[in-house]
């Protein structure tokens, strides 16, 4: 079982003398499902940002997909991000594009031909039970449907690592359950390591996961 993320004495923050994450050390494996919880402002999203190079490291070491985030070159950061899928709480879909084209976007950026992009998008939208709305635009969908499009988009290029920032924070219980099911499938069917930041792990989850809690800047694994 290989490590996809390794952190050693990692410190993160937006001001050098005020770290949000303090001296964190942990390892995440390629087939893990990780849930990160903590109070608002505890540093959950800060930690998630560090995994895709969205924040500078104040101290310690962080390796993601065998890239050293301490001294990563711009071209290598681009290569790393092609191995990642990211799902945000506010969906971040392009409202002027159909949902089919939104799901195609990562593949288009990576240079795949139009037919490959289209077929993958169609397959994923069917999988998230939106195949019948393929020509619709994001604002024609409910919040839960938009988030399912966002999950499909994040999975379109078969990422090694799927990062999710409060993916069910704005959704009702039924929509939330569907999103959790799709995230589980991302690990079980597509082989992605899944990391989800959320206020608390749902008590209804019927699969194994590792639970990290951020408390006073420390990253603690709960068993």
UniProtKB/TrEMBL annotation:
Keywords: ATP-binding, Hydrolase, Lipoprotein, Nucleotide-binding
SUPFAM superfamilies: P-loop containing nucleoside triphosphate hydrolases
Molecular-function GO term, any one: ATP hydrolysis activity
Gene3D superfamilies, per the entry: P-loop containing nucleotide triphosphate hydrolases
Primary enzyme class: hydrolase
Domain of life: Bacteria
Annotated ABC transporter domain residues: 5-223
GO cellular component, one term: plasma membrane
Enzyme Commission number(s) of this protein: 3.6.3.-
InterPro entries, per database record: AAA+_ATPase (IPR003593), ABC_transporter-like_ATP-bd (IPR003439), ABC_transporter-like_CS (IPR017871), ABC_transpr_LolD-like (IPR015854), P-loop_NTPase (IPR027417), Sigma_54_int_dom_ATP-bd_1 (IPR025662)
Name of the molecule in the record: Lipoprotein-releasing system ATP-binding protein LolD
Originating species: Campylobacter geochelonis
Upper classification of the organism: Bacteria, Pseudomonadati, Campylobacterota, Epsilonproteobacteria, Campylobacterales
């Amino acid at each position: 079982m290989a490590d996809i993320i390794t952190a050693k004495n990692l410190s993160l923050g937006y001001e050098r003398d005020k770290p949000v994450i303090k001296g964190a050390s942990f390892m995440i494996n390629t087939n893990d499902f990780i849930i990160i919880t903590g109070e608002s402002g505890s540093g959950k999203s800060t930690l998630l940002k560090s995994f895709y190079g969205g924040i500078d490291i104040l101290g310690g070491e962080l390796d993601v997909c065998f890239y050293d985030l301490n001294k990563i070159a711009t071209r290598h950061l681009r290569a790393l991000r092609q191995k990642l899928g990211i799902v945000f709480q506010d969906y971040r879909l392009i409202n002027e594009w159909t949902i089919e084209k939104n799901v195609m976007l990562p593949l288009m950026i990576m240079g795949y031909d139009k037919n490959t992009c289209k077929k993958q998008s169609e397959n994923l939208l069917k999988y998230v039970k939106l195949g019948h709305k393929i020509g619709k635009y994001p604002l024609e969908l409910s919040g839960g449907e938009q988030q399912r499009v966002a999950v499909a988009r994040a999975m379109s290029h078969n990422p090694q690592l799927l990062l999710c920032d409060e993916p069910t924070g704005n959704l009702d219980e039924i929509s939330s359950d569907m999103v959790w099911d799709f995230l589980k499938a991302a690990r079980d069917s597509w082989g992605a390591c899944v990391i989800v930041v959320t206020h608390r792990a749902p008590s209804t989850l019927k699969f194994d996961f590792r639970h990290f809690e951020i408390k006073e800047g420390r990253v603690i694994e709960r068993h």
